[in-house]
Amino acid sequence: MKIADRISHITGGSADGWGVYYRARDLIAAGERVANLTIGEPDIKTDPAILEAMAASAASGNTGYTVGPGQEPLRREIAARVQARTGVPTNWRNVVVTPGGQAALFAVHMALLDAGDVGLYCAPFYPTYPGTIRATGAKAVAVPTRSDRAFQPEAAEIEARAAGARTLLINTPNNPTGVIYSTDTVAQIAAACVARDLWLISDEVYDTQVWNGAHVSPRALPGMAERVVVIGSMSKSHAMTGSRIGWIVAPEPVAEAVAVLATNTTYGVSGFVQDAALFALRQGAAFEAAIAAPFHRRRDIVARGLGNSPAVRLIPPEGAMYVMVDIRATGLSGAEFAHRLLEQEQIAVMPGESFGAPAAGHLRIALTLEDGALEAALARLRGFAEALRG
Amino acid sequence: MKIADRISHITGGSADGWGVYYRARDLIAAGERVANLTIGEPDIKTDPAILEAMAASAASGNTGYTVGPGQEPLRREIAARVQARTGVPTNWRNVVVTPGGQAALFAVHMALLDAGDVGLYCAPFYPTYPGTIRATGAKAVAVPTRSDRAFQPEAAEIEARAAGARTLLINTPNNPTGVIYSTDTVAQIAAACVARDLWLISDEVYDTQVWNGAHVSPRALPGMAERVVVIGSMSKSHAMTGSRIGWIVAPEPVAEAVAVLATNTTYGVSGFVQDAALFALRQGAAFEAAIAAPFHRRRDIVARGLGNSPAVRLIPPEGAMYVMVDIRATGLSGAEFAHRLLEQEQIAVMPGESFGAPAAGHLRIALTLEDGALEAALARLRGFAEALRG
């Protein structure tokens, strides 16, 4: 009995690079004290007021089927939010609600890629990106970026890989690097997409976590709204990872295609979860700033704790809930460093290799530990690195 | 800018057959009184105790990411349930939790079909079936069944269409026909799948709605557990349509493939919804019987109301929340009959043509109206049909 070739195509036959994460989880389960800086899960729970809004919606009877593309009030709220943040005219027909940002990523690639097409994505990358593209039957091709250029994508690297490509997936503010694409970078990306007639899929789920400069959505550039699909989510902005709710904002033909897919893949999103999201989005900017604030504080803790180390070079951390550090001066790979750091110091971080070749010799540190514990862990990480360098 | 060919492949370019449904919805929105017997939504809300379990889980902090294949306690509960109902040894690794039965249908076809393969399904069919198969890039091929054989699939019809096929999708108790596949039918289907080396995907979401005889899961037949994937859902058994939670039960390699897909398509199901499902499954048989009871009562109302009519022939209604009637004696197509019935009698039913050619000249009546209103609507439907026959 044969499984579809699709499945081995998705995994690419390689290890998933999450060995440190699994080992840390096992140690924690066994009662060990581990400073866990591996995954991007906010260390706060969803706000009780949001959960009460969900419970109230369910109790009032919103427990039946919802229409595929999402409830109209939520689609209108998301459209208004996106328009207010970018200035781009956006209406509710541009919006499709999905069961999470990952489902949005998958749906839009399904809507835009056929088997045999090429889908581009920038490396370093969020680990599901290549598998998401491959799940459609397409070929996933990485566009490398360079540590010494703060992992900003360059038009020439995109264009060099555009043969057969129909889409380019970017992420700013970026996971895993913590950088924000500059205005110039976004303009270069947009120009490359126009030159090679690519759809640009812009994952902006960290757009409320901006510590330096400004987040520029490529959809706001002249003429780009017809070519850009934005991925959004409540997971990071509102600490609602477990609610599994996200969206796409897209030209209407793409939104309609994603709605067709929704009928055949998900059959809609729980109405009470949509009502909770609507309530959450209406809490306003101060609510969102309060959720982002700990990561901003911790970014500063990292900058203070690791600045000027001869062994640990900080990639300028501008946004998102991660920082990336270059530990090549220690002579170890990211994977070797991370495994030894876990065993010797009980600190778990992700090896850069888990996010693609350009992040080899780097580590991703998730800012998901309480400030004091983070500061102490960083001091030990720094000492560990500097001792290696000798 | 081009949308993937996949999208037009999914829709097949044909009208969706839901004109009567949309028209009824518009009439109801405009304030008209319409007896709506179109869709399979239970006319009760999710039980408050289940919603309270969900709210309690969320309030207690189960608001973060969950692992892809589902929470282990829920997977164990589902495995135990399936084993108890079928006698087939089943462990939690055979189970993957999905965001609804539709998501389960899609995931298993994604795991078993590559682009260009053939996926078989029986007609009449639940309307998402062909699109779900096509969404994978595969070709969807209908296996016809016959009204005068109570729409029971026959091995010869399956084998005649097995060239290039890798899967066969069946549904018993059946939507839209209201029949239950007999022991002989299930044995014939199983034998055909063995003969042609097909995976058998068995949609059993109506398995708590059995009015005559017994539901036989093909997974329980000798040697079939390694070839059968069962689709389950909380939507009908527990009136939880809006919670979007379902599952697959499959051989471990298939379950593992579906879990790989989950990482790249959904990233898990809300933990608080899984906890609500676990609570609901533990309410036991009496709870489920109470949810099924109104449909059983209404099935009897239909049998009384339409029995022995010279114009309306009842397909023996054995299970699920629908009955199908043959109105060919009126000389109208199902679509003509349904449109005229809506305009003249303000009764909305689905034309059989919406479910494939073998149901042409038939109507599907959903048992989702309160008993007295259903009885009155049926009397008018019968009168309308008999007047047509003259």
UniProtKB/TrEMBL annotation, chains A, B:
Which Pfam family, any one of them, does this sequence belong to?
Aminotran_1_2
Keywords tagged on the record: Aminotransferase, Pyridoxal phosphate, Transferase
Q: Which CDD domains match?
A: AAT_like
Give the coiled coil ranges. none
Q: What is its EC number?
A: 2.6.1.-
Q: Which cofactor does it need?
A: pyridoxal 5'-phosphate
Q: Which InterPro entries match?
A: Aminotransferase_I/II_large, AspAT/PAT-like, NHTrfase_class1_PyrdxlP-BS, PyrdxlP-dep_Trfase, PyrdxlP-dep_Trfase_major
Q: Which reaction does it catalyse?
A: L-aspartate + 2-oxoglutarate = oxaloacetate + L-glutamate
- Gene3D superfamilies from the UniProt entry: Type I PLP-dependent aspartate aminotransferase-like (Major domain)
**Keyword Transferase part of the UniProt annotation:** yes
Q: Does the keyword section mention Heme?
A: no
Location of the Aminotransferase class I/classII large domain: 34-381
Q: Which residues cross the membrane?
A: none
Give the GO molecular function terms: L-aspartate:2-oxoglutarate aminotransferase activity; pyridoxal phosphate binding
Which GO biological process entries does UniProt record here?
Answer: amino acid metabolic process
* Family to which this protein belongs: Belongs to the class-I pyridoxal-phosphate-dependent aminotransferase family.
Q: What is this protein called?
A: Aminotransferase
- Species source reads Phaeovulum veldkampii DSM 11550
